[in-house]
Amino acid sequence: MNTIKKKDQIINFYTYYQILDLSKGQQSLISKSIKVLIDNLEKEINNSLRDSSLKFRIHYDIVNNKTANKDHYNDFIKKNNINIVCQTPNYFKCEDWSKYFDNAIYFDSFDMKGIKDLNHKNFFHTPISNNLLTNIRQLKTIFKNKEILRIHCCDGTVTENDKVAEKFKIESEYSSVPYKIINNWKKNNFQNLKKIISSLEKNQVLFLDKNSFSSKATLKNRSDFIKTFIQTKSSGELCGVGIDIRLLTDCFNEVKEVLNFKIFNYVGDDLVEKLQLQDKILSVNPNIPNNIKQYLNWYFQLILDKVLLIAYLYENENFSFVSNKKFLSETVRRLSMLDGKEDLFLGMGEIYYFKNNRKPWVSNYLVEVKSSASKVLKVSLHERQLQIISDTQKVARVNYPYFDILKIDNILISEGTFDADFYFEITTPFSEGINILLFDNVLDEKFEYKQLIKKEHRNGYFYFRYRVSATFTFFPRAENYPFDKQVIFISYSLTNVEKFGILQPIMVEDLNRNFISNGWNILGFRSGIIRKKEDYRPVFEDRYKIVSEQNRIAIIMERPSSFTIIKILVPLSFLASLTIYAMYLPMEELETIIASITTSFLSAIALYFSTEKPNPLKLTIIDLIFLLFYVFVGISFLAIFSLWFFPEFYTQGLGYVRRFLLCFSSASIYYIYNKLKSFKPKIIFGGSKK
Q1: Can you tell me the distance from the alpha carbon of 535 to that of 544, in angstroms, rounded to the nearest whole number?
Q2: DSSP-assigned states of every residue in 361-408
Q3: Among 131, 130, 168, CA closest to 150
């Protein structure tokens, strides 16, 4: 039986990554990136729990063809004393999972066959997608003028006793969806499948789901199906459910010629990149390929968010458990208290609350997948989405914004503002154009825009292009001024979500990187949404919580070092030299000595007050530099004044003082250098560094 050691109170988490037969070229980079994310997360959580007796340890299991079995899993969880399984493993079959649930808390986001209907106090369902029938119903609502056609691919010929085919027929008939069964679908280079694809009409959508194959819906089967579809001319379209972005990328890159681009995919909430999570991933590797970034985004939300969920339950409190059983019982109790009204957990990706051990809130998006000359898939929201507002589901239209930044100027940490000049484009079904948006961090009195273009498309959409000049606020970090790095941003949201629908997130790789920055160095870009948990406490109603969203594009910028050298370091170096010069003068020139040191001190004070001051006031690197300089001058003055009373030791004593000041200066430079190197710019949310 698993136990938590009383001495160090370690909570052990199980995470894993399965090496796939396909996409082998990406495996090493993905696996290494996940390991770095896990190490960073473990360090971050344990730092936040440093006053607690609890410590988190995240165990990372890389599973391949040789280790994808029950024996390996049993050995791993026993050896590492696992208490929390972030995702129930799906790489082996298990007839009875209940025996595992007694010794650890298990989460399952895949609705795995055999356990999705199990009821156990230590088992929590956290689905990332809706069930098949719900997806079909949603697709029929979105494509109301098109025919949804399910397809079932058989390796051989369907017989009367084929239970898989019979289940497929029942599902289709229950959903009132027509279907086709393809016998020997792989025969003669998928000839039977190609006939079906080529015969599709313009108003038909082929639906590929987990029950579309008589054998298991393996990656190989899905890959063969998608490759056949995109290489076959057709008027119809294909829609899948949760198709792995790695698989789609490989399918488009491995075929000789793409003849059919009309592919849709039902995806989870990981499509919408969260700014905090995006920052974590890009901090690991700023040049990571887009498809791998999307996978890591999905992986973090699927698995590592569960670690943050448990950390949230025990934050700011010190607990001690005498046994694993007590820990599991207390954790289950706390998870059950997340009811979505009085409390919920806002993870890096998902929103978690539970009803009967199941996360009821599932967000799905229908996306359109397009290839490009650079072999990077472009994924964008379909123009119609299903949206749930106040427990009511309706079809919402999608708005597509874009920023083309021309100039960033006047970045002032003293006021926390910057000026931006940019073109703003929006393709929207609403004639109001830019007025459907609220720029959340703009100074209203300094917001000017001019409409340049307005076009109306046949599908009822309008295209607008504006020239915008405005002043925006941001949250400055002045600790390292004047060697500082700032994250400036433009935050925007819809003025009325219920009326205007959904905003297409701007992909970070689509942002314009060539603009005038007036000397500031551009280090990186971020683009995504920020979710905030807002607490409402009305007097005559029960308190409740609402999650609000803002879209944000952010630019990480670094102040040019030439500014510091010319304005501060060169003058201070001259004043330091003047002080050292005074220490070489003989005692007889006392007036010159005092005048030189006084001049250095007063000039440094005047120089200090000419520098920019952050708001609110805080100790910055420039403050530290001047403070150390004042100490430098003070030591020189005290040494000269003290040794003046002992003429016989004056020259020799100042020699020792000069050596000490050399060591002091070297140590000061080393300290400041390390402080600068340890600083990393962070996306700051709502003025908080958390």
Answers
A1: 6
A2: ----EEEEEE--TTS--EEEE-SEEEEEETTEEEEEEEEEEEEEEEEE
A3: 168
Position 687 confidence tier, pLDDT thresholds 50, 70, 90:
very low
The DSSP call for residue 146 is: S
Contact criterion met (CB below 8 Å) for 339 and 355: yes
Answer for the pair 111, 127: CB distance below 8 angstroms, yes or no: yes
The Cα 148–Cα 140 span in angstroms is 7
| Whole-angstrom Cα Rg for the chain | 31
DSSP 494-541: ES-HHHH-EEPPPPGGGS----B-TTPEEEEEEEEEEEEEEEE--TTS
The strands making up 105-108's β-sheet, listed across from edge to edge, are 55-63, 10-18, 84-85, 105-108, 123-125
Element (H, E) at 455: strand 442-456
Q: Compute the half-sphere exposure of residue 336: CA atoms within 13 Å on the CB side of its CA.
A: 13
Chain mean position to CA 403: 20
Residue linked to tokens 């006392």: 590
Distance from C-alpha of 558 to C-alpha of 225, rounded to nearest angstrom: 48
Instruction: Locate 336 and state its tokens.
Output: 């059950």
Helix (H, G, I), strand (E, B) or coil at 411: strand
Q: pLDDT digits over 430-451, tens only?
A: 999 999 999 999 997 789 999 9
pLDDT of residue 133: 83
pLDDT tens for 102-154 read 999 999 988 776 676 678 999 999 988 777 888 888 889 999 889 999 999 99
Mind listing the pLDDT tens digit for each residue in 321-346?
A: 888 999 999 999 999 999 888 889 99
How many whole angstroms from its chain centre is CA 453?
Answer: 34
Compute the mean pLDDT over every residue in the chain, rounded to the nearest whole number. Answer: 87
In DSSP terms, 387 is beta-bridged to 394
| DSSP SS3 for 138 | helix
What count of other Cβ atoms lies within 10 Å of the Cβ of residue 217? 16
pTM of the model: 0.82
Strand partners, 384: 397
pLDDT at 563 over 70: no
What is the structure's pLDDT at 689? 43
Burial degree of 299 (CB within 10 A; 0-12, 13-18, 19+): buried
CA distance 345 to 22: 35
- Residue 76 pLDDT > 90, yes or no? yes
Residue labelled with tokens 């995806």: 267
Nearest to 331 by CA among 672, 580, 54: 54
